[in-house]
Amino acid sequence: MPPPEHRPEAPKSVLARGLRLLDAFGATDGELSLSVLAERTGLPKPTAHRLLNELVAWGGLERTSGGYRLGIGLFVLGQRVPRHRALREAALPYMEDLYEATHENIHLAVPSDTDTLFLEKVNGRRSTPIVSRVGGRLPAHCTATGKVFLAYGTPDRMRQVCEAGLARLTPRTVIMPGLLRQEVARARERGYGLNREEAEVGVSAVAAPVFDRRRTVIAAISVTGWARDLELERLAPAVRTAAMALSRELARDGT
């Protein structure tokens, strides 16, 4: 257990404490024990245990033999978010068309602070096995979708990403702010972003922007697969066509 000075300070309100327990689950955490949850949140074990029981009763968590895991109640609640639900429903036909053409992983992502958040994913048995999952996130600086958001975003977004630190995920991750700005400028010129084994060794991607009716980038569609198999520049027109078709539908429907 970390020394007291390194533990997070527990929030005061009951609501904030409950939310902190939910937020303690990382992208790869299947289940967490009471001890780990108390350590990550800075809550005393008795307090954490009481709140965990209330979250289980509500359906936000499920009890397991080793502790707790996120529950179906959170999934149901997430499906009620109107903006993202409408975006996913509109995007799925275009994503499925891209999958039929490539048999690779097709992502719909949205910007989230300094990350790219995967809102939907279409894949199959022939798709490259990769780390991404719906609800997961990766740093913007090393993903094709993230570079799209930086290319069409405000200077503040680029500044925030650079100030957060350009973590090296693979030997090919761009970690110099100047080089990242050059790569993002090229993405804006081309109309699509590229990731060449920058987030996962052996895996590359190409992504194109999705605009709303005000021509603001709200999402990106990407194709991701083995670097040795994907011809990114050849795939780029198909990805851009799907993204532009979705943009037109969103503008027409006022979504």
Automatic annotation (TrEMBL):
Task: Kindly state which keywords UniProt assigns to this record, in alphabetical order.
Answer: DNA-binding, Glycerol metabolism, Transcription, Transcription regulation
Q: By its UniProt entry, which InterPro entries does this protein fall under?
A: GAF-like_dom_sf, HTH_MetabolicPath_Reg, Tscrpt_reg_IclR_C, Tscrpt_reg_IclR_N, WH-like_DNA-bd_sf, WH_DNA-bd_sf
Q: Which SMART domains match?
A: HTH_ICLR
Q: Where is the IclR-ED domain?
A: 73-252
What GO biological process, any one, is recorded here? negative regulation of DNA-templated transcription
Show the GO MF annotations.
DNA binding; DNA-binding transcription factor activity
Question: Locate the HTH iclR-type domain: which residues?
Answer: 12-72
Q: Name one Pfam family in it.
A: IclR_C
Q: In which domain of life is the source organism classified? A: Bacteria
Q: SUPFAM superfamilies attached here?
A: GAF domain-like, Winged helix' DNA-binding domain
Task: Please give the function described in this protein's UniProt entry.
Answer: May be an activator protein for the gylABX operon.
Protein's name according to its UniProt entry: Glycerol operon regulatory protein
Give the originating organism. Answer: Virgisporangium aurantiacum
